[in-house]
């Protein structure tokens, strides 16, 4: 009996480490393969007429607002191996939370949800909300809550900062087209406009409801389509402003395109990389290939 109790205690004490070990055994190959399993690129949840798109940002990042403030969160634990269930948990809740008395109608407003973070080693999803959203009445809806975050983004997409153990997923929403097509309407859909903020949304390129960053930044938008900002690991930050400086081309701006130093930054001012030569030409006639 003594040895049975010792073995049972050891089994429970190692539950988290065993789950982490199983996760590592479930994937093979390089570290990149493990990251891809833990942090899938994109999640989509359709709920009550709205589609919720969660897009992975760079690995090892935490979601913050434009002032680098973190967000309040409600956490769900026990999601080892992959963060794929996080999107559904943050939008619709979980069976466990409902058993604790948190019905879908009792959950925090989805309009205040800004994304989620996932920690693969701890098996934990952190559903992120604007500051002032969470209160004690939502305690039954999560395994734990933290209301210390001051982050708030009324319309802009999330930013990120480096965080070793987590990965940030941004959120944008749109009407569920499958539901919308079932609703008869006599109002014709207006054609896309000439402004870059009224053209057809490009959800693959832009985080903020498919619109360029300048459309929600308060800055004046240029006439051309700006850099995509909805990129994940290995792509985020790879802009003309992060290439090796091209001093012969732009000597007066330290080898960077002028748009990199304009108010609002590159995602507000710089054209897409393929249009850079057209809208940000070299100051001289010397052509020097960018690395």
List keywords for this structure.
9 strands; two-stranded antiparallel ribbon
Describe this structure in words.
The protein has helices at residues 2-13, 15-26, 31-38, 86-92, 95-99, 177-180, 266-269, 276-279; strands spanning 42-47, 50-56, 61-64, 72-77, 113-119, 124-129, 144-146, 159-162, 167-175. The chain is α+β, with helices and mostly antiparallel strands and 291 residues long. The strands form two sheets. Strands 1-2-9-5-6-4-7 form a seven-stranded antiparallel β-sheet. Strands 3-8 form a two-stranded antiparallel sheet. The protein is elongated, with a radius of gyration of 23 Å. It starts with a helix and ends in a 12-residue tail after the last helix. The model is unreliable at 1-29, 180-194 and 286-291 (pLDDT under 50).
Mean pLDDT: 80
Content of β-strand: 15-25%
Broad shape? elongated
Q: What series of H and E elements makes up the topology?
A: HHHEEEEHHEEEEEHHH
Placed side by side, the strands forming the largest sheet appear as: 1-2-9-5-6-4-7
Describe the sheet with the most strands: 7 strands, antiparallel
Distance between the termini: 69 Å
Low-confidence stretches: 1-29, 180-194, 286-291
The value of Rg in angstroms is 23 Å
Number of helices: 8
Oligomerization: single chain
Helix percentage range: 10-25%
Sheet/helix structural class: alpha+beta
Q: How many DSSP E strands?
A: 9
């Amino acid at each position: 009996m003594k040895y049975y109790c010792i073995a049972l205690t050891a089994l429970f004490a190692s539950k988290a480490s065993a789950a982490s070990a199983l996760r590592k055994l479930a994937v093979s190959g390089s570290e990149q393969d493990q990251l891809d399993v833990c942090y899938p690129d994109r999640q989509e949840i359709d709920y009550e007429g709205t589609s919720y798109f969660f897009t992975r940002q760079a690995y090892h990042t935490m979601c913050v607002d434009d002032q680098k403030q973190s967000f309040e969160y409600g956490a769900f634990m026990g999601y080892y191996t992959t963060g794929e269930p996080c999107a559904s948990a943050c939008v619709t809740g979980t069976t466990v939370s409902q058993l604790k008395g948190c019905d879908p109608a009792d959950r925090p407003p989805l309009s205040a949800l800004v994304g989620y973070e996932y920690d693969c080693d701890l098996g934990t999803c952190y559903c992120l909300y604007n500051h002032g959203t969470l209160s004690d009445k939502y305690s039954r809806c999560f395994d734990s809550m933290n209301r210390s975050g001051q982050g708030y983004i009324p319309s802009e997409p999330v930013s990120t900062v480096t965080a070793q153990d987590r990965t940030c997923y941004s959120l944008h929403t749109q009407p569920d087209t499958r539901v919308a097509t079932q609703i008869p309407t006599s109002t014709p859909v207006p054609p896309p406009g000439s402004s870059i903020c009224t053209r057809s949304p490009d959800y693959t390129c832009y985080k903020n409801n498919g619109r360029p960053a300048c459309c929600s930044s308060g800055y004046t938008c240029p006439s051309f389509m700006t850099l995509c900002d909805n990129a994940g690991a290995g792509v985020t930050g790879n802009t003309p402003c992060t290439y090796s400086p091209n001093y012969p081309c732009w000597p007066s701006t330290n080898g960077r395109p002028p748009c990199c130093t304009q108010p609002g930054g590159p995602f507000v001012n710089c054209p897409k990389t393929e249009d850079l030569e057209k809208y940000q030409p070299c100051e001289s006639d010397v052509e020097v290939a960018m690395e």
